[in-house]
Amino acid sequence: MNRTGNILVVDDDNAIRTVIAQALRRDGHRVTTAASLGECDARLASGLPDVLISDVVLPDGNGLDMVGRVTKAHPGLPVIVLSAQNTLTTAVRSTEVGAFEYLPKPFDLDVLARAVQSALARGSAGVAEPIDEGDRELPLIGRSPAMQDVYRVIARVVSNDLTVLVSGESGTGKELVARAIHDLGPRRHAPFVAINMAAIPRELIEAELFGHERGAFTGAQARSAGRFEQAAGGTLFLDEIGDMPMEAQTRLLRVLQSGEFTTVGGARTIRADVRIVAATNKDLALLVANGGFREDLFYRLNVVPISLPALRARRQDIALLARHFLDRAAEGGLPRKQLDAPATAVLEGYDWPGNVRELENMMRRMAVLSRDDTIDANEVRAMLGSAATASSPAAVDPGIAAAVRARLERMAIEEPAALDDGSLYDRIIGEVERPLIEALLERHGRNQLRAARALGINRNTLRKRLDLLGIDF
Ligand SMILES: Nc1ncnc2c1ncn2[C@@H]1O[C@H](COP(=O)(O)OP(=O)(O)OP(=O)(O)O)[C@@H](O)[C@H]1O
């Protein structure tokens, strides 16, 4: 059954305030509103609501500072933060100041209604203690809805020790997420230690993880601390966990169950005081189904799953990331460069099989190689090679796209039957092909060999096309 309660909505945008208030009233809640921090303080002074909903940017100050004060003074009051500044900073700051929930704008009213329900259900049963916030730089760039989801999960796990399993294609930022979880949480003053299961010989993985005693195996000349010990108090990042050999999986599972581990070849048992973040670019559930990964270990690791989107699934972040990497290159002493709008469009149209890493590397190369301060679309296309032109809808000149659309519209009026008679492809391509070939012949002094080379077709093909299109040569 739905609970109802007193809700205070703080937002300086009249329309948003009204829409939220109406929706919540429809659900049976009693709603008061405030358009500023001053008004909010006045409402709070005359009585606490059951749930406070607040925007971040308010005309007389920052909503998050107010939320921090309110949650400190009234730890039982659940606060839902709304924000159009959709960064990891806002998501994490919201959690740190003790907010119950963070919703990036624009949000779905149903989602807000559900958040209000769980806030009422939680009531004073316990809201996260506010954490003191220093000025920490947050590394993850991206404002797409897919990244917002990632930020919300990160914000939820930073202050606890739940095991996180990050999955995503290579270069999507899995290690960066692991580091963010470490850097933002209470373990940040202890080490972050990474180990890549795919990069270490299989027979050495257990010794690397748990350490070994002198003489434990051939070549073990001295006692060596493993990564679990090195990461004590901090975070252990198990990269490419899908490549972990079975025996090591069994041992890892025992450690996760008992909270203790034994060094290889030694009787010493050591308490495992680490937070585990694992990552995989393989489908671990599939590996489990095929018998390549222990099911019980999978569940132990997959307590909080974070799935990172491929860059092509969040194209709206590409411009932001590209600028960020150019700025970083400039800070690192390389020439400062910027991208013009068509160049950005080409980047946005490319599929980025290597994800953010590929974009980062390319921006560094552009910073070095591009001649002008402003990088243009041709340079980007040249750098991306044929892949960009072939796969990228954004790489099509907008003028050509508009001309083709206009041609189709004219056809629809003048000869509508042609739209359905199966000749469309040849007709339209023919219309584009003719001026292209003519222009190139002209450019190369009617030298067919050179025109064919420039077109990337052989001379015989060019001749056939000239014949077919009835072009004089
Ligand atoms: N959202 C992001 N914002 C800024 N930089 C990013 C982001 N995602 C990834 N990067 C950068 O891209 C590069 C690759 O990221 P990372 O090493 O975390 O990827 P990964 O998924 O762990 O890759 P792999 O599976 O190949 O190990 C790094 O240099 C990282 O700093």
Automatic annotation (TrEMBL):
It is found in: Cytoplasm. Keywords: Activator, ATP-binding, Cytoplasm, DNA-binding, Nitrogen fixation, Nucleotide-binding, Phosphoprotein, Repressor, Transcription, Transcription regulation, Two-component regulatory system. It holds the Pfam family Sigma54_activat. Its main location: cytoplasm. CDD domains: AAA. Residues 140-368 form the Sigma-54 factor interaction domain. Residues 6-120 form the Response regulatory domain. InterPro entries: AAA+_ATPase, AAA_lid_NorR, CheY-like_superfamily, Homeodomain-like_sf, HTH_Fis, P-loop_NTPase, Sig_transdc_resp-reg_receiver, Sigma_54_int. The modification 4-aspartylphosphate is found at residue 55. Member of the two-component regulatory system NtrB/NtrC, which controls expression of the nitrogen-regulated (ntr) genes in response to nitrogen limitation. Phosphorylated NtrC binds directly to DNA and stimulates the formation of open promoter-sigma54-RNA polymerase complexes. NCBIfam families: ntrC (TIGR01818). PANTHER family: DNA-BINDING TRANSCRIPTIONAL REGULATOR NTRC, TRANSCRIPTIONAL REGULATORY PROTEIN. This is DNA-binding transcriptional regulator NtrC. The gene is ntrC.
